[in-house]
Request: fold
Amino acid sequence: MATEALHENETLASLKSEAENLKGKLEEERAKLHDVELHQVAERVEALGQFVMKTRRTLKGHGNKVLCMDWCKDKRRIVSSSQDGKVIVWDSFTTNKEHAVTMPCTWVMACAYAPSGCAIACGGLDNKCSVYPLTFDKNENMAAKKKSVAMHTNYLSACSFTNSDMQGCDKKAMVWDMRSGQCVQAFETHESDINSVRYYPSGDAFASGSDDATCRLYDLRADREVAIYSKESIIFGASSVDFSLSGRLLFAGYNDYTINVWDVLKGSRVSILFGHENRVSTLRVSPDGTAFCSGSWDHTLRVWA
Amino acid sequence: MSGSSSVAAMKKVVQQLQLEAGFNCVKVSQAAADLKQFCLQNAQHDPLLTGASSSTNPFRPQKVCSFL
Reply:
């Protein structure tokens, strides 16, 4: 038995040193490929002009912090969820509320619109992800038709109808292969919790927003961070990020109530948007890229264009 | 002693690193050039970038016409 324990210790030690070797090798390889910075490659690209982006619609109705929102594929409907336990479907053109569901718990932290436009999924502290079919029949009780699709062991922080391939957990961003269930790439350059990750439109890269007040761009094929979007004057964490359709602009909502618009290629800030009266908690660009919507702890959602 | 479980955990870490080490990476200059290419190619189709006019953007206020 003593020899067994000894054998295990040897194996553990040899595995640890193999792990260290591999990590060192990975760093070396990554460094070799790091021959240039993204903004250097983009030096000759025309700089972006002045941007005039204003709040075009304000959606009021939630009784507490807005935690999450999603656009419907029809480019006009929005679903939002709040700490008040309500999930509301809005028509963003008219600002009318089309549906409202009261969840059995408060802190509905995640909501998503089905690609078909016929249902919404949401969840939060109830540890469940529930799907509600949307109906315009006033007599039908939406809550009665809900279906629970997943039970988690802890609160639901995000849900999406498409294959959500990424997870931002603590300081690491990991890319998973949905079919094998394996983590295929991991990136750990943020100095604090990552709050949001979003794929670049081409699918070859993704951006992350973190509590360390920076947003970063990671290229999946180069397997490394290729840009950092930060300013000394920005000291509050970024809670949510999204790209414009071409991927040239990165919109990021921060805990200092502002939204910063970054030039993805040049790494510079193009615009800063004021309007919310509390933290911006969620941000999504519309499916056709004509506008983006931000949700905040100030109980409102704003559509900007 | 949970020796065997930490050995198993360590084995997983090594396997994961071996997987990542076998990854065929592209040079940053190439990847960056591709990102730039994508942005420029799609720039015209990006309403938020080009600042689409009021007539095409449903959220922007329509210009008011007045009869003279």
The two ends of chain B are 91 Å apart (CA to CA). Chain B has three helices and no strands. The first helix of chain B runs from residue 3 to 21. Chain B touches chain A through 47 residues (CB under 8 Å).
